[in-house]
Design brief:
about 350 residues, alpha/beta, Glutathione S-transferase Yfyf (Class Pi), Chain A, domain 2, 2 domains, about 40% helix, about 25% strand
Length: about 350
């Protein structure tokens, strides 16, 4: 799988952009705040309908405009496919595949698989659990449309239940209606937990092997899934939490409070790992995502490296670059000097200057 072309209209700082990519390594360089990351963000939106920065649609529309368009042409197993995303300030986004509008964003999932690696991902271990849940959800939603549906329905039920909890605070007579939202919450929440458990088991096996190779056998890092509640006990724990939920005006039990731990020979890297160990783990995690996508889809994802190489030491840089030669990669950086001693072949070099691009190779 590879992206052939990205076209943007009024997206971020791009008025009009038509950019063709090489099927192997593409370097996008320029000074800070010129628009390099915006190109990668548009690819993220085209693949998942969401910004990797969690930006709202109106925040991605060029200043002074009411709408923006993203078009991605990709080649998947020899066939060209077209994705169109229409961002609007006052309406929900429009999505079309090969010119045919779709009603549910879940239909888009898995058409274009991406792995996004940014400096923020290097802190996935020591930051809060929100980021680790987001890691699970971003990958699972691309790989499993059923999971995307179950997670969407779970979040809908959770939002409605939390809204009701706030209403009950002002009108206690509504308390008897709380159980109406318990049923869908449990139904879809149990499926989310089950899928996450299997996912973590599979990616952990890959992670252990990759971390072992990166460190020359010194480290064997695995993932441990920490569900807030098990599938079997979800219903009971939710019932037992009713009074606490009412006091806090929010749902205190469910997979929206799950977490993951990173263990090296049983030692929790969040609490006791060095910065070097944590960065090795983050790197191994991204490479594990790539391998898992290959295994499940029998195809390669597109790798987006957003200014991450400058955050890695030379050994980790070399390991990463040596292991991405068989997939399409978009790399952003401020200059080309960090690749002088690299074995990586830069098939296309793109310079970005204040929302315009120059193809140098």
């Amino acid at each position: 799988m590879h992206i052939v072309k990205v076209s943007l209209q009024n997206f971020r700082n791009y008025e009009n952009l038509d950019l063709e990519f090489h099927k192997n390594t593409n370097m996008i360089y320029g000074d800070n705040a010129q628009g390099k990351t915006n190109i990668l963000e548009s690819i993220s939106v085209g693949a998942t309908t969401k910004s990797h920065k969690n930006a709202l649609p109106r925040e991605m529309i060029r200043i002074g405009c009411d709408e923006a368009h993203i078009r991605i042409i990709l080649n998947k197993k020899g066939l060209d496919q077209k994705i169109d995303i229409h961002l609007r300030k006052s309406k929900s986004k429009g999505i079309a595949i090969n010119g045919v509008p779709i009603k549910k964003s879940g239909e888009l999932m898995g058409l274009l698989n991406i792995v996004f690696f940014s400096p923020e991902d290097l802190n996935i271990i020591k930051n809060g659990p929100d980021e680790r849940r987001r890691f699970m959800d971003m990958e699972l939603c691309q790989l499993d449309k059923i999971y995307f549906h179950n997670l969407t329905e779970y979040k809908k039920a959770l939002t409605q239940r939390n809204k009701l909890l706030k209403q009950i605070y002002n009108d206690p007579k509504l308390k008897d209606t709380l159980s109406l939202w318990d049923e869908p919450l449990i139904k879809y929440g149990k499926k989310v937990i089950e899928t996450r458990r299997v996912f973590i088991k599979h990616i952990s096996e890959i992670l252990r092997d990759i971390s072992n190779r990166i460190t020359g056998g010194k480290e064997n890092i695995i993932l441990d899934y920490i569900p807030n509640t098990s599938e079997d006990s979800f219903a009971l724990n939710l019932e037992l939490s009713h009074e606490r939920d009412l006091r806090n005006m929010t749902t205190c039990v469910g997979p929206h409070r799950d977490d993951i731990s990173f263990l090296n020979d049983g030692i929790d890297l969040k609490k006791f790992g060095s910065q070097g160990q944590q960065r090795t783990c983050a790197l191994a995690l991204k490479l594990s995502e790539i391998e898992l996508v290959k295994k499940i889809t029998n195809d390669t994802p597109v790798l987006l490296l957003d200014d991450v190489l400058s955050e890695l030491d030379r050994n980790r840089q070399n390991y990463l670059l040596d292991n991405i030669k068989d997939i399409q990669t978009m790399i952003t950086c401020t200059g080309l000097e960090e690749f002088v001693n690299s074995n990586l072949t830069l098939n296309r070099i793109i310079r970005v200057i204040t929302g315009t691009v120059e193809i140098e190779k």
